[in-house]
Write a structure and sequence with these properties.
Elements: E1 16-19, E2 27-30, E3 47-55, E4 62-72, H1 77-86, H2 101-118, H3 125-140, E5 144-146, H4 148-153, E6 165-167, H5 174-189, E7 193-197, H6 217-231, E8 242-247, H7 253-272, E9 293-298, H8 300-308, E10 311-315, E11 322-327, H9 328-342, E12 346-349, H10 350-355, E13 380-388, H11 401-421, H12 427-436, E14 439-444, H13 446-452, H14 460-488, H15 494-513, H16 520-543, H17 558-562, E15 577-581, E16 587-591, H18 594-601, H19 606-619, H20 647-657, E17 669-671, H21 677-689, E18 694-695, E19 697-699, E20 739-746, E21 749-757, E22 763-770, H22 776-793, H23 798-805, E23 814-818, E24 821-824, H24 827-839, H25 842-848, H26 853-864, H27 876-880, H28 907-915, E25 932-934, E26 937-939
Parallel strand pairs: 6-7, 7-8, 8-9, 9-12, 13-14, 17-19
Antiparallel strand pairs: 1-2, 3-4, 5-13, 6-13, 10-11, 12-18, 15-16, 20-21, 21-22, 23-24, 25-26
């Protein structure tokens, strides 16, 4: 007899159902979702061999190389590089080194399936096999990914650590404080991060038992910060991932609030004295408290005092007595002022957090992990997995809720199995995690999903769809958790917390009912979510739940790249143009493929889409794009750029999905440089009003580590006593100088270019003959030639002119008679490409993407090998395969170069050059490129390294 505990047929069916066989332990009966019986997932895809060679762009050194790795043909080069370099195990060059994605997936999936079988999760061996195939298919097709520790450790001889997020605890004893340093160091060493609350430590205004005065938590933060700064250099990330929390009623709260703001002032003084204080500067380590994110735990009592303008009591740590009063509004102002100055502290809303706590009888939630998405008991951990939302969008632009629900079932089951075999960095963390089995399922690509379906990120429709999807994800997760409880038992701490857990489930369900829908798509997703919550509560009330926590929204840094996601976590699109790596090395800038997909969803025709995408390729935004209706501009709003999303747009999106998450959201709300302290206050206050659990902001250019370019800000702070003005000196050409003349034709128009050089080499003048003598065109070209010639003689580098004038578009344009420059978009485009080929060294031309015909042939031969027939044409199909079929809209086959001497190597650096200022992001210690924001952390799109959870 089989007991059906899954959803009924009208909801789309269940991927698995608990069953009981005669005289045997109950287990799950698994149904196929993505796979076909009799066909292994690996046999459904085409595999190809690739070479992975990753270099540091700053010095050209190779930091990773593995040739002959095996990946599916539809995986991008970037995803291939990141997986091969970060997740393949075994010494590089040894026979034991993994060389195929098949080996990686099998190592992980087979470990999960074996543990599930050993622990009674499956009804029959056939169910275990189907489960294995389903997980394999989803990982192979980038439908979801486990967090990085799973790929690092599972199935290896290392400890089987599967969690990326940790919460520690510290008591008011020296033994506990020193143990905090030790435990944090062990976690940093493994490449993970940890957070904790220091509020149990006595303040500097309280006495010790010996009669002396306590040091206070801020003093101990100094030691922990130094420890983190030392250990991080030997770890896997540039920054130690670390969160420090202090309650708002702690007597040292003002000192805590101002800690990093004061250090930022010190950084400015040192910078003005000539020290290198950038984020990756040599002297930044001389300042303190830079390795942690700081957050203040505010209570409803405090926020109401802020609202009313009343006083608020600060309490002794041991006795709990009020030892001082402070003006709540003034204290809140100090928090906003400090955040305005240096982005710290963020806020965590304590009462909201604990109102959604499933296990209050086992202890309060006092802290979070470094990225603020995991919030649960002290000395606990959470393993993460994220689904790629774009994989569930049908061709007609609707979201496949039924398929998504079945995928969530499989993923959450695997995540729970992992706790059965997982190892943990400390005994206390292992004990708590096994008793409460906290999971953190989440998603990536929300921003891309909304754009692709024609929703603005900051819109009621976008928020409704995001809320419904999040509700469905968590509802299915808890329903499956209840089914697992029926099969293998509830979590150990459930009995003590049963009433509270059920209360929180009802709160989630009630929030789901309150979602305001705007489209049949939203209605369908929410309707399924409603049934899932109802069924989950019904099963859970009978059997309990297997997991105290189910869902969070993590940054999805490295695994987002692994899944080829355009956007991470809950973030909107970072920019409309990004970098794409090419087979054989190099990269190109492409318009995000979400843009044409969105235009199609909005009803534009193919010709219109092509014109709009070409415009975006040239300008990086959609303003004034040909044929694009202004009311659709908002669909293409991004995190940065010409039409950046307003700060409250980010807050409103967080508020829309927060009621459907067990934990919280890793996100930083970006604010413009012009934002005021009052604006920060409003964001923090609205975060509380809207029911967020945590909130952090970053005001553009608030840190020294984010310097503006000289075009944005002059050096006005330190005025020298004597101003020395330097002027360029013109270096004239001698009377007799070498020159050469080139004749050319462009689109049928004929012309001549004469270039004169200095005797010691170097271009000094040009003359262009185009059009009939006395014509307007001839006169303009003569004046243009004189202007360029004078500029060259005053020392303006030729490469600057080339970067400005190549790819300029106007008639005449088209085919040329020059074998090195077969196509030109204008006369100036041809002229400066020709001058670059004649007068610039190969190194500078390669940065500009300009090569001779012979050099291009050599590159093709290097990448694809020499043809067996010397006279045979280049294999065009092989060349086309170097770019995904979908990546048709290319900006330029060269790195961006919008300022002389500056080259972009990542999307972040490209945006920097467009905006004229540097982003608040560190350089990657592995490959040297600028990292990209991912939630409240950073991720490198070059090699996948992260500064937090992944």
């Amino acid at each position: 007899m089989t007991e059906t505990v899954g959803v009924d047929a009208e909801t789309g069916g269940a991927a698995a159902k608990p069953g009981r066989g005669k005289g045997r332990k109950p287990g799950l009966t698994v149904q196929r979702v993505f796979t076909t019986e009799g066909v292994h997932p690996y046999d459904e895809v085409t595999w190809e061999s690739r070479d992975v060679v990753m270099t540091n762009w700053r010095d050209g050194t190779v930091n990773f190389e593995q040739r002959g790795v095996e990946f599916p043909e539809f995986w991008s080069v970037n995803a291939t590089n990141i997986v091969a370099s970060k997740y393949f195990r075994g010494a590089v060059g040894s026979p034991q080194r993994e060389h195929s994605l098949k080996q990686l997936i099998d190592r992980v999936v087979k470990t999960y399936v074996k543990s599930g079988t050993d622990n009674g999760y499956f009804a029959t061996p056939q169910d275990a096999e189907i489960f294995e195939h389903e997980l394999t298919w989803m990982l192979l097709h980038q439908v979801f990914s486990f967090n990085s520790p799973v790929w690092f450790n599972v199935g290896t001889t290392s400890k089987q650590q599967v969690s990326a997020c940790f919460i520690l605890s510290v008591d008011d004893t020296m033994e506990s404080i020193l143990n905090w340093y030790r435990e944090e160091g062990l976690i940093f060493k493994g490449g993970s991060g940890a957070g904790l609350n220091l509020s149990r430590i006595r303040s500097s205004r309280e006495l010790l038992s010996s009669g002396g005065t306590a040091s206070g938590p801020v003093s101990f933060m100094r030691g922990a910060d130094a420890s983190a700064g030392t250990i991080k250099s030997g770890g896997a990330t540039r920054r130690a991932a670390k969160m420090v929390v202090l309650d708002v009623d702690h007597p040292d709260i003002e000192e805590f609030i101002e800690t990093k703001a004061k250090e930022e002032k010190k950084i400015r003084v040192l910078r003005d004295a000539g020290f290198d204080m950038d984020l990756s500067g040599a002297d930044i380590s001389s300042v303190q408290y830079q390795n942690a994110n700081n957050s203040v735990r505010v209570s409803d009592e405090f926020m109401r005092a802020v609202e009313s303008g009343g006083d608020f009591g600060l309490r002794a740590r041991l006795s709990g007595e009020v030892i001082d009063h402070t003006d709540a509004k003034a204290l809140f102002r100090k928090m906003a002022q400090a955040a305005w100055e240096c982005a710290d502290p963020g806020l965590q809303y304590d009462d909201t957090i604990n109102d959604w706590h499933t296990c209050p009888e086992s202890g309060r939630i006092t802290a979070s992990n470094p990225c603020s998405e995991y919030m649960h008991l002290d000395n606990s951990s959470c393993n993460l997995a994220s689904l790629n939302l774009l994989k569930f969008v049908r061709g007609d632009g609707t979201f496949d809720a039924e398929l998504f629900a079945r995928a969530v079932e499989l993923v959450i089951t695997a995540m729970d199995i992992s706790i059965c075999f997982a190892d943990f960095p400390t005994e206390a963390i292992g004990d708590t995690t096994r008793k409460f089995r906290q999971l953190g399922i989440g998603y990536a690509n929300l921003g891309a999903l909304l754009m692709a379906t024609g929703h603005a990120y900051d819109s009621d429709g976008g928020r409704a769809l995001a809320a419904a999807i999040t509700s469905l994800m968590t509802g299915v997760s808890y329903r499956r958790s209840a089914e697992l409880a029926a099969v293998v038992g509830p979590y150990e701490g459930y009995a003590r917390n049963a009433e509270a857990h059920q209360r929180v489930m009802r709160k989630h369900a009630a929030a789901n009912d309150a979602i305001r829908t705007f489209h049949t798509n939203d209605v369908n997703v929410r309707s399924l979510a409603t049934r899932e919550w109802q069924r989950g509560i019904e099963i859970g009330s009978q059997h309990g739940w297997r997991n105290a926590q189910a869902s969070v929204l993590a940054p999805t840094g490295t695994i987002g790249f692994m899944m080829d996601c355009d956007t991470t976590g809950i973030e909107p699109d970072f920019s409309l143009v990004k970098f794409k790596k090419l087979v054989g090395g190099g990269s190109m800038q492409i318009v995000n493929q979400t843009v044409p997909r969105a235009l199609h969803s909005l009803g534009y025709q193919d010709e219109q889409i092509e014109a709009i995408v070409d415009y975006v390729a040239q300008h990086g935004h959609v303003i004034d794009a040909p044929g694009l209706r202004p009311e659709h501009y908002e669909v293409f709003d991004c995190a940065v750029g010409e039409r950046s999303i307003a700060p409250m747009g980010h807050v409103r999106m967080m508020a829309a999905v927060q009621p459907f998450l067990s934990g919280a959201i890793s996100k930083t709300v970006n604010m413009p440089e012009s934002a005021t302290v009052e604006d920060v206050e409003e964001i923090y206050f609205q975060g509380w009003k809207l029911g967020l659990k945590a909130l952090a902001i970053y005001r553009d250019n608030c840190k020294v580590g984010q310097p503006l370019s000289t075009a944005k800000r002059d050096k006005a702070e330190a005025e020298p006593e004597k101003v020395v003005e330097y002027r360029p000196v013109r270096k004239r050409l001698p009377k007799k100088r070498p020159s050469q003349t080139v004749s050319f034709t462009i689109g049928g128009a004929e012309g001549y270019l004469t270039a004169g050089s200095y005797p010691d080499d170097g271009l000094g003048e040009i003359f262009v003959k185009l059009g009939k003598q006395g014509s307007t065109l001839a006169g303009v070209m003569d004046a243009f030639s004189m202007s360029i010639s004078v500029g060259l003689q005053y020392g303006i580098p030729l490469e600057f002119y080339v970067s400005k004038f190549q790819n300029l578009r106007f008639e005449p344009a088209g085919m040329t008679d020059d074998p090195d420059v077969r196509m030109a978009t204008s006369v100036l485009d041809y002229l400066f490409r020709r001058l670059a080929l004649d007068y610039l060294p190969y190194e500078k031309r390669s940065q500009l993407g300009i090569f001779t015909a012979d050099e291009r042939s050599a590159q093709v031969e290097s990448d694809y090998g020499r043809s067996t027939d010397e006279d045979e044409n280049v294999d065009l199909e092989a060349l086309r395969s170097s770019v995904d079929a979908s990546s048709t809209h290319v900006l330029e086959e060269k790195p961006a170069d919008t300022e002389p001497g500056r080259t972009a190597h990542t999307t972040t650096e490209l945006v920097e050059l467009q905006l004229g200022k540097a982003a608040d992001a560190p350089l990657c210690m592995t490959c040297g490129t600028k990292m990209r924001p991912a939630g409240s952390c950073y991720a490198c799109e070059g090699c996948g390294a992260t500064s937090g959870c992944s």
